[in-house]
Amino acid sequence: MTLIERDSQYLWHPYTQHKTAALPIAITKGEGALLWDENQKEYIDAIASWWVNPYGHSNKFIADAIYKQLTTLEHVLFGGFTHVPAIVLAEKLMAILPINQKKLFFSDNGSTAVEIAIKVALQSFFNKGTKKTTIIAFENAFHGDTFGAMAASGISFFTESFQGMLIDVVRIPVPIKGQEQFSFDALNKAVESGNCAGFIFEPLVQGAAGMVMYEPEALDQLLRICQEHNVLTIADEVMTGFGKTGRNFACDYLTQKPNMMCLSKALTGGTIPMAITTFTQDIFDAFYDEDINKALFHGHTFTANPTGCAAALASLELLQTEEMQNNLIRINTSHLDFKKRVENHPMVTATRVLGVIFALEIKTESSASYYGTLRNKLYAFFIENGVILRPVGNIVYILPPYVITDAQLQKVYEVVESALEIV
Ligand SMILES: *Cc1c(COP(=O)(O)O)cnc(C)c1O
């Protein structure tokens, strides 16, 4: 049997309708921005494997750190115990996180990081004797697939089977350029009820919505409204964190600071599943009490796994090298040149760039669905040409590993340009 036959015997893939989806590609090796399949066909991973891999596949520096940790202390429970990798990672992160972030809580993935933030928002009011039951989130948000995260997510077909079973969420429009006032008005209206515990958002870029971007000034204004009404703010930086926007965190562009932040994806350079939710001192204090019932009764078996922490420490060290910081600038500059090259193409209706993120929208007759025909045609074309890109409806975005070479990046641009000729 081939790998693909063996795969389809037992495996169920994410976001996949197995009856109609193309068969998966069996990848056997990765290096830098490149992946190879079982037939030695080469692919450029132009989306950093769902945004997790900035420093390249099979990165030796991270691998060595993981090996060293695995052969020193692979895991110890974090309830009642602690260890050096968690302590050092917390110190290093605190040094680069917004200054108001003072405590951090470990979990395993982006959804759990969000789940924890939502539970903390709700419980922190409960602990203070004022029960609030609603969360505010953006339209077309994506915060993950577990129940709380799914409730906050607004991409309807991801969640429609669960309507009526989700926590209450008030949805407000994204403050895209020219539409800011609608967003401010909707938030002002939402907070009036006094029942909103938190506002969760993807800062500056909505990834899964198709790299939809908005300005820091607009987000600052939304954060101000929340602060005035005692609504806790949660920056979901699971996608944007660790350099994607050109700075360590998207929140570094803001003058206001969120009360909580969610980190995952690039945290460990795409090696080991791990996530972190961070908090201000005030939030921690709302749980700090003689009364055991006021504690946060939440945990995961692998909380603060030392190997994951070691991978995160190595990743952070790579991010902070001059070479990696120069890569961020290099990719951003190339993206801006490419934007100029394609923005007047008759098939292109919009282009946008922030940091290493590039997106363009393709002209369509009707609105293109998330996994519709156009999307599938584009995806197949990119794969055929050795470039991994996953368009969202009619939106093609590029979010490469930071180590992608100029030649590889140019090839990605060329393939995207030729795709415009086939649609
Ligand atoms: C991917 C993502 C999540 C969910 O992370 P998982 O690790 O897939 O659970 C949450 N929020 C944002 C912004 C994401 O991009």
Automatic annotation (TrEMBL):
It holds the Pfam family Aminotran_3. The modification N6-(pyridoxal phosphate)lysine is found at residue 265. It catalyses: (8S)-8-amino-7-oxononanoate + S-adenosyl-L-methionine = S-adenosyl-4-methylsulfanyl-2-oxobutanoate + (7R,8S)-7,8-diammoniononanoate. It comes from the Bacteria. It is an enzyme of class 2 (transferase). Its EC number is 2.6.1.62. GO terms for cellular component: cytoplasm. The keyword rRNA-binding does not apply. The record marks 15 as: Participates in the substrate recognition with KAPA and in a stacking interaction with the adenine ring of SAM. GO terms for biological process: biotin biosynthetic process. Its cofactor is pyridoxal 5'-phosphate. Pyridoxal 5'-phosphate binds at residues 110-111, 236, 300-301. Substrate binds at residues 50, 265, 299, 390. It is found in: Cytoplasm. Its main location: cytoplasm. Belongs to the class-III pyridoxal-phosphate-dependent aminotransferase family. BioA subfamily. Catalyzes the transfer of the alpha-amino group from S-adenosyl-L-methionine (SAM) to 7-keto-8-aminopelargonic acid (KAPA) to form 7,8-diaminopelargonic acid (DAPA). It is the only aminotransferase known to utilize SAM as an amino donor. Homodimer. This is Adenosylmethionine-8-amino-7-oxononanoate aminotransferase. It comes from Flavobacterium laiguense. The lineage of its organism: Bacteria, Pseudomonadati, Bacteroidota, Flavobacteriia, Flavobacteriales. The gene is bioA.
